[in-house]
Amino acid sequence: MIHAVFHPDRTVIEQFSDGQHPHGSLWLATRALELRHRHVRGAFVDGLCEPHQEPRTVCRQCAGETGYSVRGG
After folding, report:
1. What is the pLDDT along the chain (73 residues), one digit of tens a residue?
2. What value, to the nearest 5°, has the Cα angle with vertex 6 and ends 61 and 44?
3. Which of 2, 10, 14 is nearest to 54 (CA)?
4. What region does 70 belong to: left with phi over 0, alpha with psi -120 to 50, or beta?
């Protein structure tokens, strides 16, 4: 799976794949948010919907087919 640090407007700031580190992509993205992107107000970590380059939990195109719920923005 790929996780990313997202800007509040839902664009990718930095992304990571599970193969990059033994702890996985979620751990890497969380650490990047804490260490490198903490100055970005409202930045967050989520899985990446690769086809649409959006956070998986809010991808409106994929919400129905992946089972993820859609958050309002």
Report:
1. 899 999 999 999 999 999 898 899 999 999 999 999 999 999 999 999 888 888 988 887 776 554 443 333 3
2. 110
3. 10
4. beta
First and final CA of the chain: distance in angstroms? 24
Half-sphere exposure of 59 (CA within 13 A, CB side): 21
Please state the separation of Cα 13 from the chain's center in Å: 9
For the beta carbon of residue 20, count every other beta carbon within 10 angstroms. Answer: 13
* Structure-block tokens of residue 23: 């702890």
pTM: 0.79
Q: Using only the alpha carbons of the chain, give its radius of gyration.
A: 12
